[in-house]
Design goal:
The complex is a heterodimer.
Chain A (H helix, E strand, L loop, with lengths): L1 H12 L5 H9 L4 H9 L13 H13 L3 E5 L2 E4 L1 H8 L16 H19 L11 H13 L3 H18 L2 H10 L10 H7 L4 H21 L5 H5 L10 H11 L4 H8 L3 H14 L11 H14 L4 H7 L5 H15 L1
Antiparallel strand pairs in A: 1-2
Helix pairs in contact in A: 1-4, 1-5, 6-7, 9-11, 10-11, 13-15, 14-15, 15-18, 16-18
Chain B lengths: L1 H8 L8 H9 L4 E4 L8 H7 L5 E5 L3 H13 L5 E4 L5 H9 L6 E4 L7 H9 L2 E6 L19 H7 L5 E5 L4 H10 L6 E4 L7 E7 L3 H14 L4 E4 L3 H11 L5 E4 L5 H12 L5 E4 L14 E4 L6 H8 L9 E7 L3 H12 L3 H12 L9 H12 L7 H31 L4 H8 L35 H8 L8
Parallel strand pairs in B: 1-6, 1-7, 2-4, 2-5, 3-4, 5-6, 8-13, 9-11, 9-12, 10-11, 12-13
Helix pairs in contact in B: 2-3, 13-16, 14-16
Classes of the chains: A mainly alpha, B alpha/beta.
Zinc ion binds next to helix 17 of chain B.
Chain lengths: 340, 480
């Protein structure tokens, strides 16, 4: 697997980049050069996905050269030979891996998920345990998360169903590897290296299988958040990220539906859709307010808020009886953004 | 006191020395305590934490050790505990500092205790007890000298001289004297307990070649009761031996080159008896309190008696019969020499580092330990001097340190090749006598006891993912 990965990179870099660039790419070095390269040569999916020593990379390159798959063009620079191209023809990257896209998120998601599962498994089996992650933030996140869900058996069942559904999509081998990395009430999770030994695979292949499933989960929970609400809620909400329901509303707005139509279409109260629109106004800078709030009204609201030095809705509303609470909230949502 | 012991810690009685130390601590007495490894040192300040008013400040040299202790306290339901180390972000640090007084236990690394902000915050709260863990790090003569520890005396003064408890597991008399002076402990009570662990048999096995070492190791691991630990001198060896042994047993390796998550997995597998043998460097073992480890095998001779004794001390904490075996082959004396040589920088490296420092570069090319030592010495020198003059002085000091290390190494070599009681000669290094012992050592005629029956270990089977998942969430078969 590692041979293929390195060969793949050498091929993509077309003899224009040295092994050092591959080293930086695979180890996920966040420099401008590496970031540019990974886009330019279309290898960004491998960004940070195979953290290996440079010496190991050089060994692989030497082996590839000895087998005639690559040839040296300059110091530490190689390009693919015909037989190398042939070797690559039968190779495909694990389909869901996208190191670039998920570089900031995947490790956090994994830590939360694995600690959550360890905790749930131990609670329902009434066993004691030591958290598999030491990070205090991860621990308190899981605690808070569990606190919101009172009935543990129901929770376990729902989480099981979400996991089951997602894991049935991926290859059997990948699903196995992912689950073996997890820690339960009866088995501490196995390391990549242990799994590799047990199933007689290369450690890099095991690592990529694991990442493949992890990224698949991230992709699916993003695409179909309402189908996987529990897993989705483990993800980090960035400022630019909408709740899944608001996201739906945003999609419909972009297609030209009106507020009332959306409420009807989704079977939700008008108030709920208004909440969504305020959320969208807050997080999506390109969202245009005017269909919901005339510019003159907006100016008056902001002016009042400034004078009163307050964001209290009621205080503003008292002075501007002709505007609605919804309009005030919209104006304020944007005002804060402009303030930042 | 006994109520707290039972309620908070779940013990019925104190282990040797604990009660006497705790009583002195509660009386506001300065104490130096040497308890054998696994003797429950942390209880000596954790229990008083529930009786004294104010916060207990614990200074600990190793971040991983600190994390282990904090986790253990949290597991016991203690929320008012915090660990301050350089991995905290600025914001986290600020939040912690604001509420510093609300913590019962404050763990801190010596490096972070240089921060003026933190010192300032500490002066404003009531420190009821000033604990220095692994206090031998204070001494140049100790096996793990850390210059940052030398500043703790001054820090204690700044904090208004709160009562101090200095803890160590292995220290010579000279080191203890150093601890007392550096921390400026007047009227100090010394609690020195026997280091000997009578339930551990010490055994040196001579072999001729490295190959024979490996076959002997395989044989030993097969016949000895498990679980056990194999200590080696390098990461590479840890991996190699793990590969050799794992055909027949549940074995993994552990070293500082692995990422934190994988390390914790291995550690926990071992603690929960899901591994039989762990092949590791000295990175493994600190802070792990596993009672039933039955053997430790040293594949290489450790370079210092203190380190050797600490690693030996990880077996048999439950008091049951255990064994520490050391494999020794001619030529091994070279290994130690190489390790010590590599620990110290050459003249060229020192010059390079000084140049880098002068130009404000972070990359000095030195290891962490080397750099800390160098910076510490540099503080006492005239920095305006010519680089080569400075380098010469520094090199001389390094050479001096190296000589001291070599003395320890020579002791270890004499010990391993000698023909006197292993226990007596090793303990003589700490100026102690052995306690009476039945199965003492190879020189006193002890034998390696094989397991009565060679058990075939039942491997934990890896099941297909859906079965694993069902089991985790307790989902009955049949409903999906
Ligand atoms: Zn003896």
């Amino acid at each position: 697997m590692l041979q293929h990965i390195v060969l793949f990179c050498i091929d993509r870099f077309r003899g224009e980049r040295s092994l050092a660039a591959i080293d930086h790419l695979l180890n996920g070095k966040k420099t401008a050069q590496t970031l540019q390269d990974s886009k330019w040569y279309d290898v960004s999916r491998l960004f940070g996905m195979v953290p290996i020593d440079r010496s190991r990379l050089f060994d692989v390159a030497r082996a590839l050269e000895a087998d005639g798959f690559i040839s040296q063009v300059d110091e530490h620079i190689y390009c693919t030979t015909a037989s190398g191209k042939e070797k690559l023809r039968r190779f495909i990257l694990p389909p869901y891996i996208d190191g670039w896209k998920y570089m900031n998120e995947s490790s956090l998601f994994w830590k939360r998920l694995s600690l959550l599962i360890q905790t749930i498994a131990n609670i329902i089996h009434r066993t004691s345990f030591e958290p598999i992650h030491r990070d205090e933030h991860i621990q308190s996140f899981v605690k808070r998360w569990l606190f919101q869900h009172t009935h543990i058996k129901t929770l376990a069942r729902s989480l099981y169903e979400e996991m089951y559904e997602l894991l049935s999509y991926v290859e059997e081998k990948d699903a196995n590897i992912f689950v073996w990395r997890l820690t339960s009430h009866e088995r501490i999770g196995w390391t990549n290296e242990q799994i590799a030994y047990a199933i007689n695979e290369e450690d890099v292949a095991v690592l990529l299988s694991f990442q493949n499933v992890l990224h698949f989960m991230l992709e699916m929970t993003e695409k179909e958040a309402e189908k996987f609400p529990l897993l989705y809620s483990l993800r980090e909400r960035k400022r630019s990220q909408l709740t899944s329901s608001a996201q739906k509303t945003w999609e419909l707005l972009k297609e030209g539906y009106s507020l009332e139509q959306i409420a009807q279409l989704r079977g939700l109260r008008k108030g709920t859709i208004e909440d969504h629109i305020v959320e969208i106004a807050t997080y999506i800078p390109t969202f245009v307010l005017t269909p919901f709030l005339e510019e003159s009204k907006r100016k008056r609201i902001i002016q009042q808020a400034r004078q009163l030095k307050t964001k209290k809705l009621r205080a503003i509303k008292e002075l501007l009886p002709d505007v609605s609470y919804f309009e005030i909230r919209l104006a304020l949502a944007r005002w804060e953004r402009e303030d930042v | 006191m006994f109520d707290i012991l039972k309620e908070r810690f779940g013990y019925d009685s104190f282990r040797i020395g604990q009660r006497e130390i705790i009583e002195d601590v509660l009386n506001g007495q300065n104490c130096v305590a040497m308890l054998p490894t696994g003797g429950g040192k942390s209880l000596c300040y954790q229990l008083p934490g529930y009786i004294l008013n104010g916060s207990v400040l614990i200074i600990s040299p190793l971040v991983s050790l600190m994390e282990d202790q904090v986790q253990q306290l949290r597991n016991r339901g203690e929320k008012r505990v915090v660990a301050l180390n350089r991995f905290l972000s600025y914001r986290e640090k600020r939040d912690v500092l604001r509420e510093l007084a609300s913590y019962r236990f404050i763990y801190a690394s010596p490096e972070i205790l240089q921060s003026p902000l933190l010192i300032e915050a500490l002066t404003r709260i009531n420190i009821s007890l000033f604990v220095v863990d692994e206090a031998h790090c204070i001494s140049q003569w100790g096996h793990d000298f850390r210059p940052d520890f030398l500043k703790l005396g001054l820090l204690r003064q700044t904090l208004g001289n709160p009562p101090c408890l200095a803890l160590t597991a292995t220290a010579t008399r000279q080191v203890i004297a150093d601890i007392v002076t550096t921390l400026k402990l007047d009227d100090v009570k010394q609690h020195i307990y026997p280091l000997d662990r009578p339930n551990i048999c010490l055994y040196v096995q001579y072999v001729q070649t490295v190959e024979e070492k490996i076959t002997t190791l395989k044989h030993l691991v097969a016949i000895l009761p498990k679980p056990g630990i194999v200590y080696v001198a390098s990461r590479q060896w840890a991996e190699t031996l793990s590969e050799v042994l794992r055909e027949d047993h549940r074995v993994s390796y552990y070293h500082g080159g692995m990422d934190g998550e994988q390390r914790l997995l291995i550690q926990q597998q071992f603690v929960y008896d899901q591994l039989d043998v762990i092949c590791c460097t000295n990175a493994f073992g600190m802070g792990i309190d596993k009672p039933n480890v039955r053997f430790v095998i040293h594949f290489h001779l450790p370079t210092q008696p203190e380190a050797y004794w600490q690693e030996v001390g990880r077996v048999g904490r439950d008091g049951n019969e255990s064994i520490a075996i050391l494999l020794y082959a001619p030529g091994d004396e070279q290994v130690g020499q190489t390790i010590i040589d590599m620990e110290f920088p050459t003249m060229e490296q020192i010059v390079y580092a000084l140049n880098a420092l002068r130009h404000g570069q972070k990359e000095t090319g030195l290891t962490d330990v080397q750099q800390r030592l160098l910076l510490y010495w540099l503080e006492q020198m005239d920095k305006q001097e010519h680089i080569h003059t400075l380098a010469k002085q520094l090199y001389a000091r390094m050479e001096q340190r190296k000589k001291e290390k070599l003395t320890k190494w020579i002791f270890m070599q004499r010990w391993v090749t000698g023909h006197t009681c292993r226990r007596r000669s090793l303990l003589s290094y700490f100026e102690q006598q052995p306690l009476k012992n039945e199965r003492c050592c190879d020189q006193c005629g002890a034998h390696i006891h094989a397991n009565a029956t060679i058990e075939r270990i039942q491997q934990i089977q890896l099941r297909p993912w859906h079965e694993e998942l069902r089991s985790m969430f307790a989902i009955k078969v049949g409903n999906k």
